[in-house]
Amino acid sequence: MLSILSGDLVKQLDADFIAQQGISSLELMESAAKNFCTWFRGNFVPSEHRLFVFSGPGNNGGDGVAIARLLCHEVKAVTLLVFEEKENCSMDYRLNFERLPDQVEVTSVDKFDFKFEETDIVLDAIFGVGINRPIDGVYRWVVEKLNALEAIKVAIDIPSGIPADDVLDGEAFKADHTVTFQFPKFSLFFPEHAVYTGKVHVVDIGIPDTFLSRYQDNKYFLQAKDIPALHKRFHAFSHKGDFGKIMLFGGSLGKVGAMVLSSKAALRTGSGLVHVQIADAERMIMQTAVPEVMVAGAQEIKRLEAFDALGIGPGWGTEVDLSFYSSILKRFHKPVVIDADGLNLLAKKPEMLQFVPKGSILTPHVKEFERLVGNVSSHKERLLKAQQFAGEYGVFLILKGAFTSISTPDGKQYFNSTGNQYMATAGSGDVLTGMITAFLGQGYNPLQAALCGVFHHGLAGELAGKQKRRGVIASDIIACIPQTFLELDIP
Ligand SMILES: NC(=O)C1=CN([C@@H]2O[C@H](COP(=O)(O)OP(=O)(O)OC[C@H]3O[C@@H](n4cnc5c(N)ncnc54)[C@H](O)[C@@H]3O)[C@@H](O)[C@H]2O)[C@@H](O)CC1
Ligand SMILES: Nc1ncnc2c1ncn2[C@@H]1O[C@H](COP(=O)(O)OP(=O)(O)O)[C@@H](O)[C@H]1O
Ligand SMILES: [K+]
User: Fold this and answer.
1) Residue 223 lies in a domain
2) Which of 264, 367, 397, 423 to mutate to test the pocket of ligand 2 (most atoms within 8 A of CB)?
3) Among 33, 169, 329, 488, which one is least packed by beta carbons within 10 Å?
4) Distance between Cα 51 and ligand 3 center (Å)
5) Ligand 2 contact, 473 CB (< 6 A)
6) How far apart are the C-alpha atoms of 345 and 325, rounded to whole Å?
7) Residue 222 lies in a domain
């Protein structure tokens, strides 16, 4: 799995890779620039655009200079905008500068008229991960000017101004696309930076994942290629029992819809048998909406150990008898999934957290998480608290949102790459609960269940989004779950 390294470790990695491979840093920069150009050709028709490359004094600027050279024969025109005298720039910047052909027009930013056409593309190669203070002076002036103008804007590695591992202080370049090298930089996951990063793309620069994995920073980026190995395989003689018997608790009066969504999602994720515990008055609706589901009676609720996994919380309400909730947690000795009101009740009575079975999976959205741990001032702090919470209670903490994170009891943090804004719709969290409970029930360990659940859920949201964009509702996500197994070639 792809490791995510801090800004400091990136420098160490580059230096070690260069030393070990016997290549120069200039060659690594060339590889980064070439791979950027491949991305560029895949996303734009170069001959239809003029290119304006703003290059700062470090190696991020050097990338920009190399890109200007590599694309100058394909685009309509290239202008390289410079801030500093060559002598004040990094060695690799200078070496690239000397290789510039005549087709690249070089202009100092203070002589530039800042007149763009709609199809012009601005490349931000001002600062990368080497930024060490908020931008000011001419850099801030240029960034603010660019932010106010219409053009297509692409940031190289990271939008200039944003630190690799911290929350922005001051101003930064506002990109439509951020093309980041090798792995997404940590700060690209912060919602505070959403208006600056635009869509994030990761391009390889030729450092193998195995080399990268030597640098353990306990943070990983979950991608499609990681998923097949996490899945269990079932054989031709597999029976309903192999696919798991699960029970979902929730669906108070007027909120049975949450259970309809969770249970359907569980079935579409392959659950063998799904029971639900819901308000009596809601039975009819439940069984009409999902005939495959069984409504649990007193007997089933008494014999919880007969189930492989439990999912607790969707639409449960906060009036639940807490001694009933505690008894569920105390009597069931395997990991459970806790969401929504299951979490809100724990926030109301934190003493109950001690009864949550070890290895359980908690799936709060940001608000639910803050009810558990108190307010935070930034996403960075939130992620730190998630990591601490997972360690303290021995659970897997899934913090939902864009780039959903999964914090593990042993201090690791995984960031999901699937999903989109169209999933911000009522009930999509209930779908996730059903999916993860289904995987747990099928005998996946909690980490596998969490990673597969989050990835497939996001992918289902992407597939639904392709057809329906902002018209996506939670049921559309469920309808796309089966296709996610096809897309990933999971039998
Ligand atoms: N082998 C390499 O070195 C590679 C580097 N790459 C690129 O190199 C970048 C990192 O390069 P650098 O470490 O040179 O760092 P940057 O290019 O991000 O800039 C650092 C330079 O800017 C100065 N600086 C920092 N903050 C400033 C501020 N607020 N105002 C004014 N000056 C400021 C620093 O003193 C330093 O001179 C990556 O983001 C990536 O784009 C890629 O080419 C891949 C290979
Ligand atoms: N902008 C987004 N990008 C990616 N995923 C998102 C985005 N917004 C929401 N989601 C996903 O949708 C789900 C919403 O869950 P939740 O907030 O619990 O919804 P609900 O309570 O309505 O069921 C989560 O899995 C979350 O990760
Ligand atoms: K940049």
Assistant:
1) no
2) 423
3) 169
4) 15
5) no
6) 9
7) no
